[in-house]
Amino acid sequence: MWLAEQKKPIQRTVALKLIKTGMDTKAVVARFESERQALALMDHPNIARVFDAGSTPEGRPYFVMEYVPGLPLTEYCDKHRLSMKERLALFLQVCDGVQHAHQKAVIHRDLKPSKVLVVEHESNAVPKIIDFGLAKAIGQRLIEKTLFTELGVMMGTPEYMSPEQADQREQNIDTRTDVYSLGVILYQLLVGVLPFDAKTFRAVGLEAILRVIREQEPPKPSAMHSKRQNVRVPLSDGVGPTADTAQCS
Questions:
Q1: Which is catalytic among the residues 110, 131, 174, 197?
Q2: Please, what are the domains in the chain?
Q3: Distance of CA 188 to the CA centre of its chain
Q4: For 205, what's the count of Cα atoms within 13 Å in the CB-facing half-sphere?
């Protein structure tokens, strides 16, 4: 990803996504073109937009997209010490963006705070969903090429992955996998920790991680209350449930 300046027809700062030399394998090009097509379908204020696309003289595909100079969702909320009500307001915007993608028959498959950047526009915080590199179309292919790497390869980020996505034999992934990831993000926003501890998670190995995701019930938010010491989330802002009593499914 490169920061670039568009001159015509509008002068603006943009993000230029280009496959690096030597990285243009069939699988990488297929995922790149899939992301480009997925983003081209979107027209929503909470999803980063695509402005242009094409290929370099050497034949490497690229696309030009909206530059989002923001912070990851959880980092933004902590830095600005947002109340529960404010966190939920941002989260609802993210849900609107994901719903738009689903209405366009596109599943993101890798939703997490670092893929939701929050920018400030006219004194308002606006979350923008980025990186549809693992996007999957529902019912039809985004591109004609097959995504060769999908079968038997983990697609996504374990801490936010749904049980069906953790089953490498499962090919019928639908919109519910994004809904599950949204639930994990909400859990983290309200409680301040992930359902499964990231360091412990990563230490046990891939097969054990996938088995935990598939078979183990995540602890309720109230059970994680003791891990909130270093999290600056107000327990209550007087308008909703406390973080200790909030429930995520």
A1: 110
A2: 2-66 (3.30.200.20), 71-227 (1.10.510.10)
A3: 14
A4: 2
Q: What is the pLDDT of residues 50-71, one digit of tens each?
A: 888 888 888 788 888 899 999 9
Residue 5 CA, chain-centre distance (Å), reads 26
| Residue of 60, 66, 28 lying closest to 143 (CA atoms) | 28
Buried b / exposed e along 183-214 (16+ C-beta atoms within 10 A): bbbbbbbbbbbbbbeeeebeeeeeeebbebbe
The whole-number pLDDT of residue 186 equals 96
Which neighbouring-strand residues pair with 117?
Answer: 72, 128
Report CA-CA distances (Å) from 248 to 88, 164, 181, 182: 13, 18, 11, 10
pTM: 0.80
β-bridge partners, 47: 129
Could you give the angle at the alpha carbon of 107 between the alpha carbons of 104 and 113, nearest 5°?
Answer: 120
Q: Cis bond leading into 219, ω under 30°?
A: no
Handedness of CA 22, 48, 134, 34 (dihedral sign): negative
Would residue 110 show up in a list of annotated catalytic residues for this protein? yes
Name beta bridge partners: 4. Answer: 14
| Cβ 51 vs Cβ 65: under 8 Å | yes
117 and 72 Cβ atoms separated by less than 8 Å: yes
180-199 pLDDT, tens per residue?
999 999 999 999 989 887 77
Residue type, 142: L
Q: How far is CA 147 from CA 69, 141, 152, 177, in A?
A: 30, 10, 12, 19
**Closest listed residue to residue 155, CA positions, set 130, 139, 177, 138:** 177
